[in-house]
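A reminder from the course coordinator: this example appears on the midterm review sheet, so study it carefully.

Given structure:
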């Protein structure tokens, strides 16, 4: 886990990690949210709607942005304040995703970062894009 201070981070700072979407992660997300839409578990239902098979939950994909902020950029001193995302392509079980964030702005008065975020599949295609605003907890001072 990273523990960058606000002062250590510069505009252009980038962090990236990979995660593989598994059937187990879909089951866990389904159990937490109660979302039993067949698009996320029934291949035939999903194929009838133009997909290759059942798809991962969009918000499961987006939830990896929490790990980006809380573990990687800035890490343990983060507090996600806002998130604006667009889903560009479906994610399927077995996809290995690359989650990345790049600092595009720093607001020194409020000790807040703005990140450009993206999630790409194994083919390098963006499946999610957006922006995230992250503040620092008190421990981040100094």
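Designed residues:
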């Amino acid at each position: 886990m990273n523990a960058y201070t606000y002062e250590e981070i510069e505009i252009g700072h980038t962090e990236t990690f990979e995660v593989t979407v598994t059937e187990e992660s879909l089951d866990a997300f389904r159990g937490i949210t109660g979302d039993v839409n067949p698009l996320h578990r029934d291949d035939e239902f999903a194929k009838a709607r133009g997909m290759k098979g059942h798809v991962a939950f969009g918000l499961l994909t987006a939830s990896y942005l929490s790990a980006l902020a809380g573990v990687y950029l800035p890490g343990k001193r983060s507090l996600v304040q806002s998130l604006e995302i667009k889903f560009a392509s479906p994610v399927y079980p077995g996809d290995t995703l690359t989650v990345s964030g790049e600092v595009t702005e720093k607001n020194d008065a409020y000790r807040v970062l703005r990140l450009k975020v993206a999630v790409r599949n194994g083919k390098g295609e963006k499946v999610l894009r957006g922006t995230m605003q992250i503040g620092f907890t008190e421990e981040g001072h100094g």
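The chain has a mean pLDDT of 95. The radius of gyration is 17 Å.
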